[in-house]
Amino acid sequence: MSWEQAWLKYQAVKGYLDEAYFKEVYTLEEGKIIENALAELRLATNKMFGAAIERVNHLPTKGIHLSLVSKECLAKEGFQLEEKNGLIAIMANTQIGLLYGVYELLRRVACKNKMALLSLTRVPDKELRMLNHWDNIDGSIERGYSGDSFFFENKQIVVNERTRDYARLLASVGINATVINNVNVKQEATEFITNTYFESLKKLVELFDSYGIKLFLSLNYAACMELGGLKSADPLDETVIAWWHERMKLVYQELPTLGGFLVKADSEGRPGPFTYGRNQADGANMLAKAIAPYNGIIIWRCFVYNCQQDWRDRTIDRARAAYDYFYELDGAFLDNVILQIKNGPLDFQVREPFMPLFGKLKKTNHIMEVQIAQEYTGQQIDLCYLIPWFKELLDSRTYCGEENDTIKDLLKGKCCNHFGRGIAAVANTGNSENWTGNDLAAANFYGFGRLAWDSELTSEEIAKEWICQTFPDEEEVLDTVSRLLLMSWNTYEKYTAPLGIGFMVTPHYHYGPNIDGYEYSRWGTYHRADHFGIGVDRTKKGTGYASLYYPPLSQMYENVDTCPDELLLFFHHVSYNHILQNKNTVIQHIYDTHFEGVKDVERMIQMWKGLEHKLPSKEFHRVEACFHKQLDNAKEWCDQINSYFYRKSAINDKRGRKIY
Ligand code: GCW
C-alpha cells in the first residue's frame, strides 16, 4: 500500500531563501541518529529545492553545521539554532538534540520563516511526550478510525518503510516515547514478552532508538498465569514475584533499551491486583521492582472504575473512582512507577472538568493522558481540532497552593515536588494512506506533539505551522483552514451532549446520538433527565465529587450560581428553566446551540468548497466527503437532542424552529 508524508511533504519553496544554506553540511558526529538527521536534510533539500546537499569534511563558509556542545541549559534534548553570515549552526548536548534541531530548521523553511540572524534555543518543557496506540495483534485497532494497524499484520510485528516514516513524524514534533499495542492486552499480544516476538521487537527498538523514541509495550497483568501457568497473579505471592523477575531479566537481555510497560489493570474486565485483595500500588510496585535493575519504567493507568454499576444506585459516581482509588496511595508507589491519569474524570468527552488528582499527588510520578483518536469527538470523520481544548486543560489552575499551579506547570515538573513528568495521547493513526483518515485529523497528531514539547505554543501557531507544511502555500488556504480548525471544537460541542453532561452516544460505537443509550446500563455515565430537569448532582448533597478540588474550585463547582455554564450539568441537576450565566434558560440553550451547531457545519462546508481549486483534488475530496458525513451527524444529533428534551420538558422553542 502506498502512503503519504503528512506534514513531512517538504513542498517546493524555491526562491524564498538563499539556497546556499542547503549546499553543504558539516558534522564530526557519526552514528545512527546523525545519519537520520543527514538523511532528512538530504530528502528535504531535494524536495524543497530540487538540489542535493553534500556532507563535507571541513567547516563551510555557507551551509549547515551540526555540533555537540556542553551547555547545561540545553539539557538532554534541547538545541540551539543560529544563523550568521550564511552559516546555520545547530548545537546540542546530544545527537537527538541535533536531530530535533534539524527538524526545527526544516519546519522553519517549510513555513518560510526568515533565516538571517536567526538565534533560538528550544528545550522541551515536558520530560515524557508519549503516544499510546490501541493496536491489536490481529491488525485491528480499538477505537481506530484510520484503517488497520501498521504495526501488526497476521499476528506479526511489521517493521518497514512506513514504520520509519512513523518514527520520522514522531521525531519531527518531538515525541519521545510510544506504546505500540493496545492496553487491553489479549491473545498473542501477551506473548510480546517471550521469545516469539523478541527478534522483531529488536528491529523496532533499534529503529526507534535512532529517532530518540523509547519503545514501551502494554502488558497483561495476568501474564504470569496465562504464560507461566501460575495459579494466581497476587502481587505479594513469592512465586508470582519470582516469575516476573525472571521474565523481565529475559526481556531486558534481549531488549536492553526498552522503555518499560504500560498497564491497564482492574479496569473494564482486565485483570489486576484487586482480585487478590491488594491495592493498585501493590500491583504496580511488584512489576516495578522486577524491572528496576534495567532502568525500566512501569506506567500504571488510573482508569480504574466499577463498570458493573447499578444505574439505580445514585451513591456510586464513576467520576470519583480514580481519585478514590489513587489519592490515598500517594507516596506508596516506587520511583520507577508513573501513574497515567486521563485528563478528565469520565472518558475523553468533548468537555469535562480536569481530573482532581492533578495538584493533589505530591509524592507520586504522574503524567496526563489525552486522546487524539476522537472516540467521542467525531471519530476523525467530524472535524474537531482538539488543541484549544488541551490548551484549556494545560492552562487550568489546580490551586495546589504553590505559585506555579497550572496543569502545565505540573506536567513540566514545576510544582508538586516535581512529580509531574509529561503527557501521553491515545493515537489517531492507522494504515490509511494519509495516516489519519480525514486529512484534517492530522492537525491533532501534529498539534499534540508540538504542545507536548512546548505548552506555550498557541492553537493558532500550531495550526499555522501544520497548514504551511501540509497544504499549498496560499494565503486563502492558510486563512480558511485555520478558521475551520479553530472553530471546530466549539462546533462539535454545540451539536452534541449539552453543558458538560457528556455521553448520550450510541453504545459501544460512540459515534452519533443515543440519548438514553447508556442511561439504564452498567457503565456509570448517566444524565438523569426527567420531566423536570437534567444533570448529575455532584455537590455535597449528591456524590460529593465537587469537594475533591481545592478551593476556590470546589466552592465554584459546588454552587449552582458560580458553576461555569459549560460544566453545569456535570455538577448539578437543574430544571429546564434554570437560568444560565449567559442569561438563557437551560432548555433554550440546548435548542439554540444545537441549531447553531448544524449551521456551523453548513458554513464549514461552504468554506471548504471555496478551496476546491487551490488544493490537490484527492485531498480536497477526501475531506469534503468527511464534512458531508459530519453534517448528517450534526443534524441527527440536533434533531434527536432537541426532540428528546422537547418531549421530556414540554417547553417550546422560543424561536419556533422545527422540532420533532
Ligand atoms: O474510552 C474507553 C474506550 C475503550 C478503552 C478504554 C481505556 C482501550 O471505550 O475502548 O479501552 O476507554 O481507556 O482503557
TrEMBL record:
It catalyses: Hydrolysis of (1->2)-alpha-D-(4-O-methyl)glucuronosyl links in the main chain of hardwood xylans. Residues 111-435 form the Glycosyl hydrolase family 67 catalytic domain. GO terms for cellular component: extracellular region. Residues 436-657 form the Glycosyl hydrolase family 67 C-terminal domain. It comes from the Bacteria. The active site is at E268 (proton donor), D347 (proton acceptor), E375 (proton acceptor). It is an enzyme of class 3 (hydrolase). GO terms for biological process: xylan catabolic process. Its EC number is 3.2.1.131. Residues 6-105 form the Alpha glucuronidase N-terminal domain. Keywords: Carbohydrate metabolism, Glycosidase, Hydrolase, Polysaccharide degradation, Xylan degradation. The keyword Hydrolase applies. Homodimer. Belongs to the glycosyl hydrolase 67 family. This is Xylan alpha-1,2-glucuronidase. It comes from Candidatus Galacturonatibacter soehngenii. The lineage of its organism: Bacteria, Bacillati, Bacillota, Clostridia, Lachnospirales.
